[in-house]
C-alpha cells in the first residue's frame, strides 16, 4: 500500500510539474528611459520633502498662534484681576478715609461737648491745679492746641504765599500783554510812517495826490 501511494504521489508530481515558460523577448520598464525615471523619482522625493517641511511649518505656526492666543487670554485675565484689585484698594482706601474722618469728627464733637459740660469755675480750677492728673491733661491739651495753632499758621502762611504767587503771575502776564500791545502799536505806527513817507516821496511838492479814496498832502500831517 505504501509503495502504491508513493507511486501515485510521483505520478501526481510528474503530472503537475511546472512547465517551462516561453515568452517572446520585449523591452520592460515602460516607454521612459532610466534617466527619466531617476529624475522623476528625485523630483517626487524633493516634493515630498518640501511638503513635509510645509506641514511642519504649518504645525509650528498653528502651535505658536494657539500659544499666543492663550498668552493674550492669560494677560487679559491678569489685567482684569489687577484692575479689580486696584479698584478694591481704592474703595478700601476711600472707606478707611471716610471712617477716619467720621471717627475724628465724632471724637472732636465728644471732646467739645465734654469740655463745654466740664468748664471749671475759679474754685475748681484752683483744685485742678493741685490735681496731678488734671494738670497732665491740661498740659497735654495745651500742647495739642499749640500744635494745632502752629499748623493753622503754617497753612495760612502757605495760602498767603500761594496768593502772592498768583498775584505775581497775573501781574507778569498783564505786563507781557501790555508789552505785546505796545510792540504791536509801535510796529503799526512804523508801517504807517513808512507808507506815508513813500506817498510823500511820490507826490509833487505843494500838490495833492488822491490815493485810496483819501486826500494826502505834503504838509507833514500824520495818520493815526
Description:
The structure is a single chain. By secondary structure, this protein is mainly α. It is built from four helices and two strands; from the N terminus they run H-H-H-H-E-E. It has a two-stranded antiparallel ribbon with strand order 1-2. The chain starts with a helix and ends in an 8-residue tail after the last strand.
In short:
It is built from four helices and two strands. It has 224 residues and is mostly helical. It has a domain at 39-112.
List keywords for this structure.
elongated; mainly alpha; disordered C terminus; 224 residues; EPSTI1; 79% helix; Epithelial stromal interaction 1; two-stranded antiparallel ribbon
Please give the alpha-carbon distance between the first and last residues.
Answer: 158 Å
Share in β-strands: under 5%
Order of helices and strands: HHHHEE
Number of strands: 2
Strand order of the largest sheet: 1-2
Q: Give the integer mean of the pLDDT values.
A: 78
Number of helices: 4
User: Which outline best applies?
Assistant: elongated
Please state the structural category: mainly alpha
Biggest sheet features: 2 strands, antiparallel
Rg over CA atoms, rounded to whole Å, is 57 Å
Helix content range? over 70%
* Poorly predicted segments: 121-133, 207-224
Protein name: Epithelial stromal interaction 1
Biased composition (Basic and acidic residues): 8-17, 142-190
Region (Disordered): 1-35, 66-88, 125-224
Biased composition (Polar residues): 215-224
Amino acid at each position: 500500500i505504501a509503495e502504491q501511494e508513493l507511486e501515485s504521489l510521483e505520478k501526481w508530481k510528474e503530472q503537475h510539474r511546472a512547465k517551462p515558460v516561453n515568452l517572446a523577448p520585449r523591452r520592460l520598464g515602460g516607454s521612459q528611459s532610466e534617466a527619466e525615471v531617476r529624475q522623476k523619482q528625485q523630483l517626487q522625493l524633493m516634493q515630498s520633502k518640501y511638503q513635509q517641511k510645509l506641514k511642519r511649518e504649518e504645525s509650528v505656526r498653528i502651535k505658536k498662534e494657539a500659544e499666543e492666543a492663550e498668552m493674550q487670554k492669560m494677560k487679559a485675565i491678569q489685567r482684569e484681576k489687577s484692575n479689580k484689585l486696584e479698584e478694591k484698594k481704592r474703595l478700601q482706601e476711600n472707606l478707611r478715609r471716610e471712617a477716619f474722618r467720621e471717627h475724628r469728627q465724632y471724637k472732636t464733637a465728644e471732646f467739645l461737648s465734654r469740655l463745654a459740660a466740664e468748664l471749671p469755675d475759679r474754685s475748681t480750677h484752683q483744685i485742678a491745679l493741685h490735681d496731678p492728673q488734671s494738670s497732665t491733661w491740661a498740659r497735654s491739651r495745651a500742647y495739642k492746641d499749640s500744635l494745632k495753632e502752629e499748623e493753622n499758621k503754617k497753612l495760612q502762611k502757605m495760602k498767603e504765599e500761594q496768593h502772592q504767587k498768583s498775584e505775581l503771575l497775573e501781574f507778569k502776564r498783564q505786563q507781557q500783554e501790555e508789552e505785546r500791545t505796545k510792540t504791536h502799536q509801535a510796529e503799526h505806527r512804523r508801517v504807517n510812517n513808512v507808507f506815508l513817507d513813500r506817498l510823500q516821496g511820490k507826490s509833487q511838492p505843494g500838490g495833492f495826490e488822491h490815493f485810496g479814496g483819501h486826500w494826502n498832502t505834503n504838509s507833514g500831517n500824520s495818520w493815526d
